[in-house]
Write the structure tokens for this entry.
Amino acid sequence: MWDMVLLAPRMRAVLRIVAALIFLEHGTQKLFGFPPPMGGTLPAAVSLLWFGAILELVGGALLVLGLFTRPVAFVLAGEMAFAYWLFHAPRSAFPALNGGDAAILYCFVFLYFVAAGPGAWALDIKLGREPGPISAPPPSRAAP
């Protein structure tokens, strides 16, 4: 049982870091053209897509570090909900057809971090903003 208690915060951190790195990549693609976007165009400065890219870049970086995890995840969940309803839902009612699968998943993964916190390996823990992961109890001695 203690194995699972010890593993959960670390796996939450892995989910946070991997999701944030992929999210960050969307921001670098829109702002810097890396990796090169398939359409080949970057969003116009101070447009909705540009503001979204800023959120993806800065928010993704903060989540990778585990810094201000809960408020950043809340903002990013809102961004993904907004993006889904504004850009994806009008195309079709089905996420598999409207390309909104990732937006929905990001929204709910980020909401999970709002509720559950960053997991292990987060600057929020080092700064005392979040409690650290649970330590294993000392091994019990068998009765003689």
Remarks:
- The mean pLDDT is 92.
